[in-house]
Amino acid sequence: MAGVIGPRLYSCCNCRNEVAVHDDVISKTFQGGNGRAFLFSHAMNVVVGLKEDRQLMTGLHTVADVYCSDCREVLGWKYERAYEETQKYKEGKFILEKSKIVKENW
Ligand SMILES: [Zn+2]
Predict the structure, then answer these.
(1) pTM
(2) Which domains does the chain possess?
């Protein structure tokens, strides 16, 4: 079907600001604070908060909250640093909670 359908996007549940593209999904099996969360290689139109060390199920990580750049809703977090060798692939990646994002152009 020829058309002008753009990339499949995820947007902020609050203000519909576009925050990530489907092609950047690395994993859909993460656990967020309130249910399922997706791991993305990139996020856009977001603000990254202060870094802090957090003990997660997979070990100690330095993480920062990620906010919508428009409405400041907390959408997830960014992995700044992983201390466990097996978790290093998450560094610089973004977690967005499934309950905080909505699909666009699907
Ligand atoms: Zn928003």
Answers:
(1) 0.91
(2) 9-103 (2.170.150.20)
